[in-house]
Amino acid sequence: MEAVSYIILIGSSLLIASVLTSYLALRVGAPLLLIFLGIGLLAGEDGIGGISFNDPQAAFLIGSMALAVILFESGFDTKLASYKAAAGPALSLATLGVTVTTGVVGLGAHSLLGLGWVEALLVGAACSSTDAAAVFFLLRVGGITLRDRVRSTLEIESGSNDPVAIMLTILLVEAAGHGFASPVAIVSELVLAFALGGVMGLAGGWLLVAFINKARFEAGLNPVVTLTFALFVFAATNMLGGSGYLAVYVAGLYAGNVKLRGALELRRFHAGLTWLSQIVMFVMLGLFATPRAFVGMALPALGIAVLLVLVARPLAVWLCLLPFRFSVRETSFIAWVGLRGAVSLLLALVPVLGGLEHGQLIFNTAFIVVVVSLLVQGWTIGAMARVLDLIVPPRRGPVERVELELPGNADQELVAYTVHGKSPAARGQRLPRWARPSLVIRAGAVVPLHKAKPLQTGDHVYLFTPQHRLPLIDRLYGGSRALDQNDREFYGDLALSPDATVEQIAEMYGLPLSLANARLPLRDLLRNEFGGAPELGDRVRMGGVELIVRDMDDDGITSVGLALEPARVTQPRRPLYRRLDAIGGLLRDWWRHRSFQRWKRREKQRGRRPDMQRLAAPPLPEESMENGRGD
């Protein structure tokens, strides 16, 4: 009995320490996941706690369950609309990107650690996957407001690249013990794992939703049902030979994008459970590590970490995003946010479990790589977003939504707003009957509705509304973007109707006109420019001004901004990466210029004077950026 109480006391003390230090970490800007890992190290056998934990089977079991919970929540909180804009680049990073990273890091491990090729590639496979816990935490909790396409690409990549890295790791461990299987067998195993994982995930998500909607359990039991379903789908898919990690992510993705009873309460529950899973997983892996074993291999491992951060990840991102319309700055930021975390450490446990000769060396190397990634990339993600001018003004909208189980099929939500100082509501505009609040809280006290008029800045208002009216109410209580200086720089000085034609705007503001686009509405011009998928903040140069996607809804562009003096966010920078079409254009212009210079020299040698009026030298390419996503 005393031993059980002692174990519970130690575990709860570590959790309390993690929660308390997280408050300090948030104030100094330190990555929380690194703090959790550090607490495990301090409590371990080489730290002040002296706790000995060297059971890789238990560590892998606990870590796998925690990761399944995290992946379910990440899918549950991802909207399918994100896939419309980012599925292609994200899945490219999750497949080709993982493979390229594995090869480059494996080459470095072979050279720096002296490992055989299979074990060196195991180091690369373990470090190839970005960590969903780290990425989701830093992007969603860190207060970094990015464009939807960049954020969605990073989040979808981190949630979907684990299965590829896991399959590569398992195949390499099997190859280390029994030799490589035939290419046909490897491809068949990968296809089976992904196909079965996807099918089981969809089936599990559908069963979960149907079970909760039809069974109508007590509200407190629904979270238990979702948790057990997630773990069941994860384990069952693994037993059948599929990817359990992919299945649990797909199950969460399905459940989070259909009508589900008590969905908001379930989101809160799984958000809290994800926090607990992250703390347990990182503290446990910190306990498992033995820092005294790092002495002889710290420098080579640091070299591998630098190779990953500065070479492998940027190269993989550049290759994968070449076909897609990402700007130089967006590509650079995605390359920097290649955070490694608990997934890499769990994968590094597989060689230890497989009994490989250098299994512990692989784990120690991955541990140092994760620490460097969290320390360098995790600590600078906000600064990098600001340096690259990728921070966008946050959208103003509801502070909180509360789903209510009303009788019948009433589609109503209780929405809470904090009234913005420059909103129509705060300026005394008469509110429609359907937008009037049901409750007003001012300075912490409830104010009767007849005494709350006019509403004041900072009032908390609560109202019932159908979901389709939320965008309209957002505008009434959230204010206008163009009234703030930072918003003006991003969204433009003036708001234009998307139905206005290019010809009308050119005539009104004295702008150059392209006859091919003259009769196009601004909505169609922007949609054509960005391949049918424009986003908030996308820009198109039109003479000395810029047209900007200012506002959107589910049907498309609802407002176009006009920047009279294009903001700093559109000024060109020296690119770190280029798109494929830009590279081709540069090479073509360079070859034409070189050919012309050669021809001119030949003409001079023959005593002829080149007709410079008839043949003008093509200019060397200059740094330019025609639109908000271009180079």
TrEMBL record:
<feature type="transmembrane region" description="Helical">
    <location>
        <begin position="6"/>
        <end position="26"/>
    </location>
</feature>
<keyword id="KW-0472">Membrane</keyword>
<feature type="transmembrane region" description="Helical">
    <location>
        <begin position="164"/>
        <end position="186"/>
    </location>
</feature>
<dbReference type="Pfam" id="PF00999">
    <property type="entry name" value="Na_H_Exchanger"/>
</dbReference>
<feature type="transmembrane region" description="Helical">
    <location>
        <begin position="121"/>
        <end position="143"/>
    </location>
</feature>
<keyword id="KW-0812">Transmembrane</keyword>
<feature type="transmembrane region" description="Helical">
    <location>
        <begin position="88"/>
        <end position="109"/>
    </location>
</feature>
<feature type="region of interest" description="Disordered">
    <location>
        <begin position="602"/>
        <end position="631"/>
    </location>
</feature>
<protein>
    <submittedName>
        <fullName>Cell volume regulation protein A</fullName>
    </submittedName>
</protein>
<feature type="transmembrane region" description="Helical">
    <location>
        <begin position="192"/>
        <end position="212"/>
    </location>
</feature>
<feature type="transmembrane region" description="Helical">
    <location>
        <begin position="58"/>
        <end position="76"/>
    </location>
</feature>
<feature type="transmembrane region" description="Helical">
    <location>
        <begin position="297"/>
        <end position="321"/>
    </location>
</feature>
<feature type="transmembrane region" description="Helical">
    <location>
        <begin position="366"/>
        <end position="388"/>
    </location>
</feature>
<dbReference type="InterPro" id="IPR005170">
    <property type="entry name" value="Transptr-assoc_dom"/>
</dbReference>
<feature type="transmembrane region" description="Helical">
    <location>
        <begin position="33"/>
        <end position="52"/>
    </location>
</feature>
<keyword id="KW-1133">Transmembrane helix</keyword>
<feature type="transmembrane region" description="Helical">
    <location>
        <begin position="333"/>
        <end position="354"/>
    </location>
</feature>
<keyword id="KW-0050">Antiport</keyword>
<feature type="transmembrane region" description="Helical">
    <location>
        <begin position="219"/>
        <end position="237"/>
    </location>
</feature>
<dbReference type="InterPro" id="IPR038770">
    <property type="entry name" value="Na+/solute_symporter_sf"/>
</dbReference>
<keyword id="KW-1003">Cell membrane</keyword>
<feature type="transmembrane region" description="Helical">
    <location>
        <begin position="272"/>
        <end position="291"/>
    </location>
</feature>
<dbReference type="InterPro" id="IPR006153">
    <property type="entry name" value="Cation/H_exchanger_TM"/>
</dbReference>
<feature type="domain" description="Transporter-associated">
    <location>
        <begin position="487"/>
        <end position="566"/>
    </location>
</feature>
<keyword id="KW-0406">Ion transport</keyword>
<keyword id="KW-0813">Transport</keyword>
